[in-house]
Structures are given as C-alpha cells and as structure tokens.
Design brief:
mainly beta; 6-stranded antiparallel beta sheet; 8% helix
C-alpha cells in the first residue's frame, strides 16, 4: 500500500509540474511592407513540424473588388479569416493560416492581390499546439474606423478555454509618429510586432487566454487616428477544461 501511495504521489506531482498538454506556443517571426505592387512576400520562414504559419495582413487597395490569396513556395494555399473590409472602403485587414505536418524550411509566404496595392504590411507567427484542422475559433473586428487614442475591441466569445488570441491594430496612413503602448492589463504581450511605411502601419500582439471568457484589447495610442482593429482566436488542441487531457483527469479527479 505504501508503494502504491508513493507511486500515486509521484504521478500527481508530475502532472501538476508539467505544462498544460497541447497549450499553444506562439513565436513571432518576421514582418515586411510593400508599396505599389500586386504581391507582398516574406522569405526565410521556418515552421516546425506539426505547427502553423499564421500571417496577419493590412492592405491599402486601389479597388474595392480586389481579392486576396496567400500561398507558399511549395504551392500550398492558406485559409483566410473573414476580412475586415467595410463596403465603402478599399482597405482590408485579415489573417491567413496554414498547417505544416512536415514543417517548412526557409520558405516564402506570398500575398497576391488581384489589383496593385498602394501599400501592404504583413507579420508572420509560428504557432504550435493547435488542432491539425479547423483551428480558427472566434473573430471580432472593428472595421468602421473610429478616431481615438484608446480604441477598444472585445474578442468574440471563445468556444473553449486556452485559445491563442491575436490582436491587430493599424491605420491606413503614414507610420510617422506612430506609437502603441500595449494593453498588459488585459493580459496582452507588452511587445507588439509589425511595420509600416508612408501609406500604412499595422502591429500585432498576442496572449494565451487562460479562461473561456471575452477578452478586451485596448492599447494606448500616441495619437488619435482612424484605427482598424481585429482579434482572431485559435483553438488549443488540448484545452485546459476537465477531460481526458486535463490535469484533473490525469489525477483522477471526479472518478
């Protein structure tokens, strides 16, 4: 009995000490910007086997009927989220993602527009710990640009706990004088990632949602501008709810 109790104690300690199974891991990669082109490429992309490439785009377009296609150098096509693109605007914001079961080495990810962009920016992330299919959860967007120094956007309601959340904010004007103090109060990473030029600027930050509630994103901007704002959630492959992969299940809680 003593040996069995000791063995159970060791298993319990290991379960409590280990990180949550399947918890998403987000790694910022690189950004790029372009003007006066139909393509926006980001080269030298390395994605580990079993992970996703997730790319966030802001595009200042010349035609409201423009279409956006994201591909890689292996001939794969990415899945686009819903675009934040008001009917009266030529400008758009969206994310695109692709699962790599065997990884991607020194790859190139390219956005191709059906018409020439005035300007475009991209920020790429590697994300591990998502389901191998249908990883996208809730998407929320503020597409009707509001001028404010503290723009507020609430995420959609997640379908589960432990989601990887990304918040993108930007404006379709010069990056000159742009500053963004991130919303750490609501759990967002203090650092944001992105770039801009004389016609556009966009940055992205992220967090892992410990629960399953709505999360606000309200950064403090250096100046009041007409911001475009979007939050995209991706599912945890093994969400930290009670179940076969949870710590509670590993410890036999509820049995």
């Amino acid at each position: 009995m003593k040996m069995r109790a000791l063995a159970l104690a060791i298993v319990a300690w290991a379960a409590l000490s280990a990180p949550a199974l399947g918890a998403p891991v987000i790694t910022p990669l690189t950004s790029n910007q372009v003007g006066g082109s139909t393509t926006l490429a980001r080269t030298g992309i390395n994605i580990a086997s079993g992970s996703y490439a997730v790319a966030f785009y802001m595009v200042r377009e010349n035609n409201i009927s423009n279409t956006s296609t994201v591909t890689d150098n292996l001939g794969n096509t990415f899945t686009n989220t819903t675009e934040c693109n008001p009917a009266s605007s030529n400008n758009t914001m969206f994310a695109a993602y692709r699962y790599y079961p065997s990884g991607l080495s020194s790859g190139t990810i390219t956005l191709t527009q059906s018409v020439t962009m005035t300007a475009g920016v991209v920020q790429v992330f590697e994300v591990a710990g998502l389901p191998t299919s249908s990883p996208e959860d809730a998407v929320a967007a503020a597409c009707n640009e509001v001028s404010s120094t503290t723009p507020l956007l609430a995420s959609g309601t997640p379908s589960q706990a432990g989601n990887a959340l990304f918040a993108m904010i930007g404006r379709f004007s010069s990056s000159s004088g742009f500053s963004d103090t991130e919303d750490t109060v609501n759990g967002w990473n203090a650092t944001n990632y992105g770039t801009g030029n004389t016609n556009i600027v966009g940055v992205v930050t992220y967090q892992i949602n410990a629960g399953s509630g709505v999360v606000n994103h309200q950064p403090t901007m250096g100046t009041a501008s007409a911001w475009r704002h979007m939050i995209v959630a991706f599912k945890d492959a093994s969400p930290p709810a009670s179940g076969t992969n949870s710590r509670a299940a590993l410890l036999g809680v509820g049995r």
